[in-house]
Design a protein that fits this description.
The chain is α/β, with parallel strands linked by helices and 505 residues long. Helices cover 28% and strands 23% of the residues. It has three domains: 212 residues, Rossmann fold (3-Layer(aba) Sandwich), CATH 3.40.50; 87 residues, no CATH class; 92 residues, no CATH class. About 1% of the residues have low confidence.
């Protein structure tokens, strides 16, 4: 497949692999609500934050939404959006690589963008996610009136590029029917089966048994469908449907027959379409009004309306699924996910992670009634934890940071060995788990008590006897081993020394 080239591509391709794993440090004073909540708000560079999340959340995120800088050559108050084209591609490429690693096999990523970079973004997303996993380019009409100040055209839409981790296996959730759609169903003949609407009985395509005369209830003979077409059902099926009162002959009983389609029999969800009007999902002015209501001033130039994010989350996830936004901005994605009963991770670099995202989410927990609250019957509840990026797990020489605790290193070791997140991150046990028949152990931070050599970090026969059992080969990380190479081989143990055998990246 052809690849997009830019000045720093060779360097940018290596960035995500060389980003160090960092600690995530809890900041209790900015957390709020239910202490048992899994929702996370992270302050820091999203490249570092995404790498820090990998050991815990790789392959677990159901829906990713990002609204990255559009590179529109204008400086925003909270962002420097005036990035040269090469810099913009260098910004996006490594972040997309890390986001791909976080998606579940049934997950999707949705990216809003305008015409300045949309087509370049499509090409690099084809590379990162696979061209076969491209799902759609959704067009969102974001303005409700033309801009008279436009030099050439009034730009009234944004793109939403949608990719799946596996497009062949992904099935979108259907959209709920609207009141307007249901109003098309009437009941002029008081049918006990309820409202219905007429459907054309004729078809253009050839149907071998679709040509026959029909006699109306008033005795008028209709030789065939209008325009020389075919009836879409056979004569036998037509007579059966008529006997079941599923044929509508018009109020006078002599009209061209039509099939009655009952609302109760209609598929309750509709297939998502690729054009989203502002009447359905909101527009930029509506988004600004939502921000004004929350912060009493217009602090973001290009916020997204809650209804737009609601539709994306509705199509791409179910309750309790994990949603991630690594360009969180004013916190819209986290707020909407919270109201819709999803778990979420939001990442924002600037100070407004504290000055805007935190107070907004506190208001959501307290039951604020703006945006989609009424539509989803939101009354409040839940909570979130605030984190900031800490020091790297390893220093430049590859030594383990003294601030690292067992849970952090356990997650890192497991991910380095299996490329999957630790299955039980809160469980304190030297046996991290089993993967493809191999048991993985970590002796670190005195996990087995200080009475043993080096706090239980040294593998001895006595310590081995007290380790949780695993029937199969074992990989054990520790400071050192007092068992001979022959003994380790006989016992089916591969010993790896910390920190030297722990992958730093």
């Amino acid at each position: 497949m052809p690849k997009l080239d830019w000045l720093t591509r060779s360097e940018d391709e290596k960035v995500s692999a060389h980003v160090p794993y960092r600690l995530l440090e809890a900041v209790p004073e900015h957390s709020y609500g239910d202490s048992g909540s899994e929702n996370m708000l992270i302050q820091g560079d999203n490249l570092d934050a995404l790498k820090a999340l990998l050991p815990f959340y790789a392959g677990r995120v159901k829906c990713i939404f990002i609204d990255p800088p559009y590179n529109t050559r204008s400086a925003f108050e909270h962002y420097d959006d005036n990035l040269e084209h090469t810099q913009w591609l260098g910004l996006m490429y490594p972040r997309l690589e890390l986001l791909r690693e976080l998606l579940t096999e049934q997950g999707t990523i949705w990216v809003t963008i305008d015409d300045n970079e949309a087509h370049y973004l499509k090409v690099i997303m084809d590379e990162v996610f696979g061209r076969k996993n491209f799902v759609a380019n959704v067009i969102w009409r974001k303005n409700y009136s033309p801009k008279s100040s436009a030099r050439h055209f009034s730009v009234d839409h944004d793109h939403v590029l949608v990719y799946a981790a596996d497009a062949d296996g992904w099935v979108p959730n259907p959209m709920p029917r609207t009141e307007k759609q249901d109003k098309a169903y009437k009941n002029p003949d008081n049918d006990p089966r309820g409202p219905w609407k007429p459907s054309d009985l004729s078809a253009r395509n050839f149907y071998s048994v679709g040509r026959y005369p029909i006699t109306t209830p008033k005795g008028r003979v209709i030789s065939g469908p209008p325009g020389g077409n075919y009836w879409r059902v056979s004569e036998e099926n037509f007579k059966r449907m008529d006997s079941e009162q599923r044929i509508w002959w018009g109020k006078n009983g002599e009209s061209i027959p039509q099939i009655k389609r009952f609302l109760t029999e209609v598929k309750q969800g509709i297939t998502p379409q690729t054009y989203w009007s502002y009447e359905e999902v909101g527009h930029t002015q509506e988004a600004k009004q939502e921000i004004l209501a929350l912060f009493e001033k217009d602090v973001f130039i290009t916020p997204k309306p809650e209804k737009l994010i609601q539709r994306i989350i509705q199509i791409a996830s179910d309750e309790d699924d994990l949603v991630l936004d690594s360009f969180l901005g004013s916190g819209t994605t986290a707020a909407v996910a919270h109201k819709m009963g999803r778990r979420y991770i939001g990442i924002e670099m600037g100070e407004h992670a504290i000055t805007h995202c935190v107070p907004r989410l506190k208001k959501v927990v307290d039951g604020e009634q703006g945006g989609i609250s009424e539509a989803v019957s939101w009354k409040g509840g839940g909570g979130f934890h605030f984190y900031k990026l800490g020091s790297p797990v390893f220093d430049e020489e590859g030594r383990i940071n003294p601030a690292v605790r067992f849970a952090h290193l356990a997650a890192h070791v497991w991910f380095a060995e299996t490329r999957t997140p630790l299955p039980h991150p809160k469980r304190r046990s030297p046996l991290l788990g089993a993967h493809e028949g191999v048991g993985y152990y970590l002796l670190f931070n005195g996990i087995l008590g200080d009475k043993r050599p080096d706090g239980g970090n040294v593998l001895t026969r006595r310590l081995l006897a007290e380790l949780p059992a695993h029937d199969g080969p074992k990989v054990i990380y520790g400071e050192s081993s007092r068992l001979s190479k022959e003994s380790l081989l006989q016992l089916g143990i591969m010993f790896k020394q910390t920190p030297y055998d722990v992958k730093a990246r």
